[in-house]
């Protein structure tokens, strides 16, 4: 009950009590016995208390019904979110020729831990790098994202070592359930023996009920003159808007 209702209830209860008091002390002279005044006051106050109790009971019932409705609504929304939840499964491997680049696949060209650009087709020397007969300083591997969830992932974009640092809208796309996209990394290691690659992915479900984030770490390193890749996957963190 808000302050307005409390004030009104106190006012309605207090005014008759004050009038009866004034009558009893003969400030307001009336030809009414004290017993009659007190009987009236008792009846009035009793009725007021009963009315207040009924009002509070109704208000509590309405509030409980609203909370129950909100709880059911949230449960239905969560059930629907789970039914259309996408889930990205990631993998890393060394590509074997010939490599077919699809329209959603991306070439990631890096110098040490800095992304230079995203590309959409393989250069001639990169095809030879995949075979392992070109630049010995180039570390080559493929990073795949497959949607194994119940529905499509939409508004999806990826940042690799904070690249791109702006205009992420350019790289947004959708990934249907069962669909896969591959990022082919070509890293000029220079004199570095180990490089950490931080991948941050964000996407929505098809009805934008849930917004998801996933973070992976790849450690690319050379050891004993062999190109090896160590892969560490962090559990995705998720939130629902």
Overall description:
- By secondary structure, the chain is an alpha+beta fold.
- It has 2 domains: 3-83, no CATH class; 88-240, no CATH class.
- Helix content is 33%, strand content 36%.
- The chain is built from 3 helices and 11 strands.
- It has helices at residues 3-24, 34-83, 124-131; strands spanning 88-93, 106-111, 114-119, 138-147, 153-160, 173-175, 180-188, 194-205, 210-223, 226-233, 237-240.
- Strands 5, 6, 8, 9, 10 and 11 form a 6-stranded antiparallel β-sheet that branches. It has a 5-stranded mixed β-sheet with strand order 1-4-7-2-3.
- A hairpin with a 4-residue loop joins strand 8 and strand 9 (210-223).
- Helix 1 (3-24) runs antiparallel to helix 2.
- The radius of gyration is 36 Å and the shape is rod-shaped.
- The two termini are 32 Å apart.
- The mean pLDDT is 77.
């Amino acid at each position: 009950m808000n302050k307005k209702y409390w004030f009104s209830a106190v006012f309605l209860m207090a005014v008759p009590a004050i009038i009866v008091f004034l009558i009893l002390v003969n400030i307001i002279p009336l030809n009414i016995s004290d017993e009659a005044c007190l009987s009236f006051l008792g009846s009035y106050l009793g009725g007021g208390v009963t009315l207040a109790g009924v009002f509070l009971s109704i208000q509590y019932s309405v509030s409980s019904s609203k909370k129950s409705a909100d709880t059911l609504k949230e449960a239905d929304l969560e059930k629907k979110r789970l039914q259309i939840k996408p889930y990205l499964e990631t993998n890393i491997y060394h590509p074997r020729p010939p490599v077919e680049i699809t329209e959603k696949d991306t070439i990631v060209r890096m110098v040490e831990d800095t992304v230079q650009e995203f590309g959409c087709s393989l250069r001639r020397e990169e095809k030879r790098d995949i075979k392992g007969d070109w630049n010995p300083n180039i570390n080559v591997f493929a990073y795949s994202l497959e949607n194994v969830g119940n529905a499509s992932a939409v508004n999806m974009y990826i940042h690799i070592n904070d690249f791109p640092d702006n205009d992420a809208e350019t790289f947004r796309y959708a990934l249907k359930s069962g669909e896969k996209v591959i990022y082919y990394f070509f890293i000029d290691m220079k004199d570095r023996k180990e490089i950490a690659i931080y991948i941050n992915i964000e996407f929505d479900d098809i009805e934008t009920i849930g917004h998801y984030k996933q973070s992976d770490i790849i450690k690319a390193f050379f050891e004993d003159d062999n190109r090896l890749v160590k892969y560490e996957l962090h559990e995705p963190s998720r939130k629902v808007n």
